[in-house]
Structure formats: structure tokens, C-alpha cells
Specification:
The protein is globular. It has 13 helices and no strands. Helix 3 runs parallel beside helix 12 and helix 9 (197-205) packs parallel to helix 11. By secondary structure, it is mainly α.
Amino acid sequence: MEIFLDALLDALIDGVKMLPFLYLAYLLIEWLERHHGENIENALAGGGRWGFLPGALLGCVPQCGFSAVASNFYASRVITPGTLLAVFIATSDEAIPLLAAEPSQWTTLVLLIVCKIIFAIVGGVLLDFPLRNEGHADEVDCHEEHEETSSIFLAALRHTLEIFVFILLFSFLIGLIFESVGEDAITGILGGMGIFQPMLTALVGLVPNCAASVLLAQLYMEGAITFGSLFAGLTAGAGVGLAVLWRVNPSWKQNLFMTGLLWAVGAAAGMVLQLIL
């Protein structure tokens, strides 16, 4: 019982400390979605053969559903495979607001975004070069529906509380495991995977749910995984984008290829960063 209460108390304290920063982050995200969401989508759709550039840059914007929009564009052949890959690689889902909510992680956040943009551009170029004959634009309207009737402050508060629940849950579970098994034992097991640790986190990242990015960010902030492993998981993680791709794109071969490629890029990139950082 003492272990249970200690883990719960630690999770509550850590979560409450993050709340003000988390709310401000989601307030900014809500403002971006409502005032610039359509401009962001138009910039992506108008990128043409160079779409991987706006895809890499705009994919880093923590906007709800952006990867889903990219999947719809790809299914309608508005964007190229390289542009879709660039968006998926650049997407970090809930990890960006979580890292932004912790001042001690701001350096990590900047490094994460810079590396994301670089790998997204390189991945987009390498994929579009052999597939340069694909991706002819059609007319399509696939803007995401946003909750614009409610106050921007209430919408940000609702999103903050939803993610706070995930933070609380994962912090509690991680703390409980660390208290029961021992922090040294857990970090020893994960650390014992060495350079192969990113291969595991890249698999976790493929889960099309914001819970995966929250879990990866929490594990990193607890010191359980390396930056390379965090990057691998967040690179393979495209939010709900993969789930939407499998739903709207009729070619299961293309979908399987993109899913496998996303895992491979995430794992490889994470292993490279694990070696050099």
C-alpha cells in the first residue's frame, strides 16, 4: 500500500506542476488550428514535387489531425508519397506540448524538432526520387472539423485535462513499476538493449493513438529511455495518420509499405542518434 500511495502522490505532484505550461501550450495549438489551420493545409497541398519541404516544416506544428489531413491528401493523390512520409516523420503528436510543459526539457524539444525536420526532408527526397511519377493532384476537400463553437479557452482546458489524465495514468504506472521492481533494474533492462532499444520504441510509436507519444515522453523524462529511442518512437508515430491512411487509401500494399517504412526510418534514425549523441 505504501508503494501504491507513493507512486500516486509522485504522479499527482509531477502532473500538477505541468498543468500551467500544458494549458498554455494547448491554448497556442487551439489558436493555430482555428486561425491558420486552413492555410497550413493549403500550403501542404500546394507543395507539388517539393511538398516534402512544407510537409517537414508544417508536420512539426502540433496541430490536431494534421497527419490525418495528409493521409486524405495522399489517398486523393494531392500529395506525393515523399510528402506523406515527411509529414508522418515530422509529427510528434502530444510529445511536443508535454516537453514544452517541462522547462527542463526545452533543450530536448528544440533538438527533437530540428532532427525531425532534417530526417523528414531527407526521407521525403529519398522516397520521391524513385517514385517521382506518382502523385497527381485531384480536387479534394478534406478539412478537419474543429470545435469552433466553444471558447478557445474552454477547448484548450478540455484538451489539457484529457492529456493530464494520460500523464497521471502513465506517471503512476511507471512510478509503481519503478517502486516495485526497482529503478536500477528497469533502466538496466532497457539499457541492456543498447543500440536496439530504438527498434522497440519505434514499434510502440506505430500505435495510432496519442497515448503512445505520451508514454514515450514520460519514459524519456523518467530517464528510462534515451533520446535516440524517444526520437525513434516519435518518428514512427504519426498520431491518427496511419489509422486514417488504412481507412481512406484503397491500396493495402501502399499502406503496408508506408507503415513498414515508417518503422524502419524511426528505428534506423533512433539507432544513429543513439550512436552519435
